[in-house]
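Journal club side-thread
Mid-discussion, someone asked how the predicted structure for our own chain would compare to the paper's figures. Pasting it here so we can look after the session.
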Amino acid sequence: MPEDPDTRPTILIVEDIVFIRMMTEDYFANAGFRTLSARTTAEAIVLLETDPTIRYLFADIHLPGGEDGQKLAATARKRWPPVKIILTSADMPADQVRLPVRGLFVPKPYSLDRVRQAFETMP
């Protein structure tokens, strides 16, 4: 008998600091999400290209590899318009963040409850 498809919403977490990424993955998994994670923009793009179930993108702005979360967010908005996007940073003022249409910025340190609630109320 075939297995039931995983119907949990899928979130892609893009964070280069391992313990923050793991903590965020654990939080969202316990909140009922299917979690995927990446350390760089390039890894995130591969996941977005290969997994059409991704509905949420939570990305740090400062990432290794030459691309940042703002460019990732712009690419995601253009190529995968339904994906809900939240960017975060510890050292970038909100008024300097370039967000895509319908994107949000949540500064670090953040409450993961607040991030989840923001995703739930996004159009």
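Post-session note: The longest strand covers residues 54-60.
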